[in-house]
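User: New here, any thoughts?
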Amino acid sequence: MTRSSAFPTATPPQTEKRSIFDTHHGFTRTDDYAWLRADNWQAMFRDPSLLDSRIRAHLEAENAYQAVLMADTAELRKQLFAEMKGRIKEDDSTVPMKDGPYAYGSSYRLGGEQPRYFRTPRDGGTDEILLDGDAEAEGKPYFRLGGVDHSADHKKLLWAFDDKGSEFFTLSVRDLGNGHELADRIPDTGGGGVWNAGDDGFFYTRLDDNHRPSKVLFHALGDSAENDRLIYEETDPGFFMDVGGTRSNEWIMIGINDHETSEYRLMRADDPLAEPKLVAVRETGLQYDLEEGGNIFFILTNADGAKDFKIMTAPVENPVRANWRELVPHEPGRLILSVLGFSNYLVRLERKEGLPRIVVRDRESSEEHFISFDEEAFSLGLSGSYEYDTEIMRFTYSSMTTPAQVFDYNMRTRERVLLKTQEVPSGHDPDHYVTRRLMAPASDGELVPISLIHHRDTPLDGSAPCLLYGYGSYGITVPASFNTNCLSLVDRGFVYAIAHVRGGKDKGYGWYDDGKRAQKMNTFTDFIACARHLVAERYTAHARIVAQGGSAGGMLMGAIANMAPECFGGIVAEVPFVDVLTTMLDATLPLTPPEWPEWGNPIASADDYSTIAAYSPYDNVAALDYPPILAQAGLTDPRVTYWEPAKWVARLRERKSGGNPVLFKINMESGHAGASGRFSRLEEIAYTYAFALKVAGKADSVSAAASV
């Protein structure tokens, strides 16, 4: 691989080396860049000004270096931003969802960065703004709204915000009668809460110093937060915890889970002083979720070997596992993703043969029917309902060529009403594009799905550049949904492709199992197989492929860079989880203990240590001819800490053999999700796309139509 001529020659920051050593299971590692981790990281997440001045200087030098290498894309980034912004309806709003006398929704004002929450009379009328995100964000470099929940009596609003990017949310209560905030303001929460039945208090999770939701508390309005009643404390740092309620306002549900085990505790919403009751004790590998059903709970579970899940019921008076009864049996290859209960119906979202589908079941007759769609690949979502006793449920539909559509569906009459189609103000003609679903042969014979879109005029002779996106962890499926942003690449002749690699649930739960822990290497080899298949099918060439992934997908980017750098012309790793072994060896970090079921516990297991060490990107950087690499991060990110990509970039520059640059761009005022405003986020995407266009030799395509 020769040095890319797209970038000017410039001297990157020289990262000081300070060797430290650690030994586990007889293996000793040397880490020259561990000093980039701030010793006071917990305090710094709450107050970024506390960052060590030497670390800050290094990060600012990285930003200065990437600015030099990307300086010639300034006009291109402006053009990309304008295009992407032009596809957004600036004063867009959701379709309000009915609840009692009102319907609730969210909207944006022209030029607004943050959403506004509003309500309108149930059958139509004047909107009433309940919460204005732009007003709350004024003067703050970062602002992100968390949960927003109106009380059942429609008199109060419980809402959360994060103004550091570190995901320590503050809860606040607004009186909807006069618009004033009550004195009930609680910091360091998980980002949401749920009202009790009397609407005179709420339940919430409190984060500890290590950013873990370790306590569920009840706050009585008007009381001091110091007096909040502890409802439940989770002492095992390996479990996440959240608290929610049911639409009937009858139950409070405390959910406790890691990536393979779950547990629920229940209490009546009208009795905040009661002790929560255990449903089924946590049992390693047993997963279950609860959904209300009147005098029963619906239970979505993998119990009794139901790998792709089944649905059971249990009486609300005593929903212990001994009382679970099967309703919808397990069917191998049909993965049930979620269920939604109504007074007369049960709705489930499931995935079969790689595609989602919605099934509606009449609770009285047990008759089922499907909601059908015609496209080759598409995305579905259940939007739910505020109301339980209703015949109407809401869902969303889109494909890579079809803008998002919102439907209300009558479960009795089977009438489908289109409420809204996503507007693209600058125009969108689906006939200009082609979407396909390919199957790439993996090295072990499995077929890996690829969803892709390209302009109908793009030549498929191997000359087109390609952005290949991947994730492949935690069972998350990347939907083949409409993405207005990627059209800026597609209109410039790119093939935009999604590799549905193992580690997601695209082909059932087994697809997830085959891409985690000891089988994690399949995620990486699948992605490489997808790249090779796209080349074999003449969609692109290896030197024209820009790989992209974020978070755990950024780990994927680091791994494929080490395993097959020759297969890619460029790599974009966003908030990349690249120092996997070091992080999994540090039980003090926010997500480490809950992540052990996903990656393995290298502290306790020599086998897990060896497995992770074999692919951890930071540990496997070698004297290879890497393509140009762009790493991006946020300073206050508690999920993938900034020092992981900072260390990775330093080691890449130290060890690589080729002359291609490694860029590191860090947002000093954000966390894991990047910029918080909808337009400032577009500026970050424009930067990423400019890098991809630069690598592909398309940076001069200022007009979107120029290359097609």
